[in-house]
Amino acid sequence: MIKPDGVANGHTGAILEDIIKGGFKIIALKYTRLSKEIAGQFYAVHSERPFYTDLVNFMSSGPIVAAILEKDNAVEDFRTLIGATDPSKADAGTIRNKYAKSIDANAIHGSDSDENAQIEGSFFFTAFERF
Ligand code: GDP
């Protein structure tokens, strides 16, 4: 998911280009906005963390781009492509290094396991929206 800051700062095209150049195939793509309720569900795993309310408010603050991506070893390779959660610690050339400003507004989300990728993909897309 390209987060609200990535979209608002005009980085959608550049980020999608980096993803495609990184060898990922786009299976599904959507421009939409999360309600607070849906953002809260999406990040329910973090509901006990001190930053949860800020995270939900931020993730529902503007439009996002959701995608399902396909590649061998996709989860790990995507984490490498996007870089560390805190952009100040993200390796040079990674998406968060290039396009993110803070740990809150860090431009992009990637699933942390194949299982969560299935769950998160189903948040946004029906079977008829995947190609
Ligand atoms: P990710 O998988 O790299 O996105 O990181 P996590 O799953 O651990 O956290 C989810 C999101 O919560 C991150 O992308 C950040 O936007 C936010 N987040 C994580 N840790 C912190 C933190 O310590 N402070 C704040 N403000 N936000 C955080």
What do you see in this structure?
The chain is an alpha+beta fold and 131 residues long. The chain has a single domain, classed as Alpha-Beta Plaits (2-Layer Sandwich), CATH 3.30.70. The protein contains 7 helices and 2 strands, in the order H-H-E-H-H-E-H-H-H. A two-stranded antiparallel sheet has the order 1-2. The mean pLDDT is 97.
> What is the CATH homology-level superfamily?
Nucleoside diphosphate kinase-like domain
Strand order of the largest sheet: 1-2
Mean pLDDT: 97
Overall helicity? 40-55%
Please name the CATH architecture.
2-Layer Sandwich
Number of domains: 1
Amino-to-carboxy terminus distance: 17 Å
Rg is: 14 Å
Output the CATH topology. Alpha-Beta Plaits
The global form is globular
Structural class by helix and strand composition: alpha+beta
Strand content: 5-15%
CATH top-level class: Alpha Beta
Total strands: the figure is 2
Order of helices and strands: HHEHHEHHH
Please mark out the parts with pLDDT under 50 across 5 or more consecutive residues, or reply none: none
Number of helices: 7
Largest sheet: 2 strands, antiparallel
Hetero ligands:
guanosine-5'-diphosphate
Describe the SSE topology.
Layout: H1 4-8, H2 12-21, E1 25-32, H3 36-42, H4 52-59, E2 64-70, H5 74-82, H6 95-99, H7 114-124
Antiparallel strand pairs: 1-2
Helix pairs in contact: 3-4
The site of guanosine-5'-diphosphate has 9 residues, from helix 4.
What tags apply to this protein structure?
131 residues, alpha+beta, Alpha-Beta Plaits, two-stranded antiparallel ribbon, 42% helix, binds guanosine-5'-diphosphate
